[in-house]
Task: inverse folding
């Protein structure tokens, strides 16, 4: 008799025939209503659950599945899987840490380029019959901060450093002794020393709301934020306010608090693009020493490059930052399946 698998993941339909051909009976339940109904109706038959970190599997659901033997989490994060409830029943929990790291890193760099270079806005303008002459910042030689230097963070760092000549710093729970990137002791300190801040950390209690108003203000009006980690890492209300008040330059988000729901306020933040800036008038953020980092070095000699930041002119009526909204990338195994959309309203 085929083993019954409950599939909660939304974007793996093309893999379902492969699962079924290996003598599994699949119950697809990607919405909350379908999920609840499937557990209520078929709970006594389900032996495996396929989920992902933000969807998880909760204690009361585990209790309703008496034959459950394994919970398979696609990707690295498992923050909403009740590990204690699974452990109490000796249910195996697996994840795919590192498997998708190259694909996610590619996606992060694509978002960073699209955001900083204003690619969606320029594309939209050309499609409207316009021919904008826009100067945007360059990535080359800038300071990239990475919050979470795990498998994904390392892949991003390599692409940034080797591909774009960026200087990389990071914040982790503890410094790594196998990299030469600069360690910063806090998220705020990392933001203060970054032109671009990429969030690549898992969700959960330990990273909840690490990026708040203080961190966003440290990033500053010329700084850009990319989140490919978890929506819970950012205080959404603080991000909305920072964009509306132009206290940061822009944000590209691949994750949200309540996926697939996008905050209602997002339409207000995305309607205008951030002010155009010429790379010539926007030098790299000067690197100040991160506390506790023995590997920090900087040039303080007379005439050193990028010794200060210069203000860039912008339209007087421009009062908003940029938001690029990207549906969560579905990255499975070694296939770069980016099932989503990219939009920015200018």
Result:
């Amino acid at each position: 008799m085929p083993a019954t698998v409950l599939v909660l993941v939304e974007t793996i339909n093309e893999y379902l025939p492969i699962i079924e051909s290996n003598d599994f009976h699949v119950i697809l339940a990607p919405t909350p209503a379908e999920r609840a109904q499937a557990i209520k109706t078929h709970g006594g038959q389900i032996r495996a659950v396929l989920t992902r970190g933000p969807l998880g599997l909760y204690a009361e659901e585990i209790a309703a599945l008496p034959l459950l033997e394994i919970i398979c989490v696609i990707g690295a994060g498992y923050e909403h899987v009740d590990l204690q409830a699974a452990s109490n029943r000796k249910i195996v929990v697996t994840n795919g840490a590192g498997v998708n790291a190259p694909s996610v890193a590619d996606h992060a760099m694509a978002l960073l380029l699209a955001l900083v270079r204003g690619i969606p806005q320029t594309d939209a303008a050309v499609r409207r019959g316009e021919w904008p002459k826009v100067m945007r910042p360059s990535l080359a030689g800038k300071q990239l901060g990475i919050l979470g230097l795990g498998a994904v963070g390392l892949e991003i760092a390599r692409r940034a450093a080797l591909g774009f000549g960026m200087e990389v710093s990071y914040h982790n729970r503890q410094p790594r002794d196998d990299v030469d990137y600069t360690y910063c002791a806090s998220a705020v300190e990392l933001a203060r020393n970054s032109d671009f801040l990429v969030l690549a950390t898992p969700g959960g209690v330990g990273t909840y709301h690490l990026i708040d108003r203080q961190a966003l203000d440290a990033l500053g009006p010329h700084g850009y934020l990319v989140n490919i980690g978890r929506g819970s890492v950012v205080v959404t209300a603080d991000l909305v306010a920072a964009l509306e008040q132009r206290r940061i330059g822009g944000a590209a988000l691949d994750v949200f608090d309540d996926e697939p729901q996008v905050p209602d306020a997002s339409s207000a933040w995305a309607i205008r693009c951030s002010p155009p800036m010429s790379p010539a008038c926007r030098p790299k953020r000067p690197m100040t020493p991160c506390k506790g980092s023995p590997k920090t070095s900087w040039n303080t000699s007379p005439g050193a490059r990028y010794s200060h930041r210069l203000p860039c002119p912008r339209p007087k009526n421009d009062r908003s930052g940029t938001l690029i909204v990207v549906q969560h990338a579905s990255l499975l195994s070694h296939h770069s399946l980016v099932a989503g959309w990219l939009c920015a309203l200018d």
